[in-house]
Amino acid sequence: MFNIAIVDNNSLFLHDMAEKVREAMYSRHQPFYVQSYETTDSLISDLSAGRSYDLLFMDIRLEEQKNGIESAKHIRELCSDILIVFVTYYPQYYLNVYEVPHIYLVTKDRLDELLPKALDTALDLYMHAENETVTIRTKSETNVIRKRDILFLEKDLRRIILHTKENDYMFYSSTED
Hints:
The structure is a single chain. The chain is an alpha/beta fold. Helices cover 33% and strands 31% of the residues. The chain contains four helices and ten strands, in the order E-H-E-H-E-H-E-E-H-E-E-E-E-E. Strands 2-1-3-4-5 form a five-stranded parallel β-sheet, with helices on both faces. A three-stranded antiparallel β-sheet has the order 8-9-10, with no helix packed on it. Strand 9 and strand 10 form a beta hairpin. It starts with a strand and ends in a 5-residue tail after the last strand. The model has no long low-confidence stretch (mean pLDDT 87).
């Protein structure tokens, strides 16, 4: 399931964008979920509570005290592998987006043209990350583990314990391997 969050403080644009994202995702035959947020605080609250997203469409110009670029920095700290697409009407922000790793910049006046391209880029990166694996071989079995499921590795001499979201795998190897 490809989870998408959209943040924009303009509720009319937010609703319109969510509908366009849904239409585009239906045509790509990819299971998805879209959640809209009018504030970054509500998104950050959900992320802190354990909700996760694969893709974030972030408006750059939000409340007067915050902007989408600063908020994206904070969100990136909470969710380091989230793909970010910045959205804006204002050309003066174009260069500022490079302060945060992102995959695309969509201008609101060209939304119909750029949104599908941004989604295709995000889906390509997501599918590539989904398919990256590590193979662990022990005396009795071979396990193929997706890299994105790995939480951390624990090392004790030559024994390594690989911790994932679902299981722990113990094997013997050198640190270099």
